[in-house]
Design a protein that fits this description.
InterPro entries: DUF3000. 24% of the residues lie in helices and 32% in strands. By secondary structure, the chain is α+β, with helices and mostly antiparallel strands. A six-stranded antiparallel β-sheet has the order 1-2-3-4-6-5.
């Protein structure tokens, strides 16, 4: 990074901003190893909604990665990029809703907008999955899941972006904003285990 002597310090300031973010008590966030080869600088976070004693969550989970490349890859249209993943199990009836994928994407956009998290060049997928167990897995019954994968180029401070991601993870798991401490609606997957 000889052509960009301040890149490391810029990234460390951004990483510190993410590490100092306070999340709602029913979402556990921790730093995890970063994916390799995506950018010269990266920090990754994982979130679990109300994890059990084993650290696993039956409600929902997510990943947030902040990437920094001083060379500014053309696809990013900038030197920073955020990549996220969020997923949660659903009641089967909710999983059949034809608008579910659209709603999940709109929750992300609403969460970003509500925090004035400026961004551009957004892209992603929203996937709903229905499953049915057979044979030895028939006892698990039917299931559904929603998954959102997205990326965008952030502008301005990074904290609003990570807060929006945490809100999205909570909403997919049935925790609307401001519902901290309120029971999760239907332990969707717990009843199948």
């Amino acid at each position: 990074m000889t052509g960009h002597p301040d890149a490391g310090s810029e990234f460390e300031a951004a990483a510190a901003e993410l590490r100092e973010t306070v999340f709602r008590a029913d979402i556990t966030v921790r730093e995890i190893p970063t994916p390799q080869g995506l950018a010269p600088y990266a920090i990754a976070l994982a979130a679990d909604v109300r994890p059990g004693d084993d650290g696993e969550s039956v409600y929902g989970t997510g990943r947030f990665v902040l990437l920094h490349d001083p060379e500014g890859p053309a696809a990013w249209d900038g030197t920073w990029r955020i990549v996220l993943f969020a997923q949660a199990p659903l009641e089967t009836e909710i999983g059949t809703d034809p608008l579910l994928a659209d709603v999940a994407w709109s929750w992300l956009i609403d969460a970003l907008d509500s925090r004035n998290a400026a961004y551009h060049s957004a892209s992603g997928t929203s996937t709903k999955t229905l499953s049915k167990g057979f044979g030895g897995l028939a006892v698990e019954g039917d299931g559904a899941q929603i998954e959102l994968r997205a990326s965008w180029t952030p502008e301005g401070p990074f904290r609003p972006h990570v807060e929006a991601w945490a809100e999205l993870v909570g909403m997919l798991a049935g925790l609307p904003p401001g519902s901290e401490g309120i029971a999760v609606i239907g332990a969707r997957k717990a009843a199948r285990d």
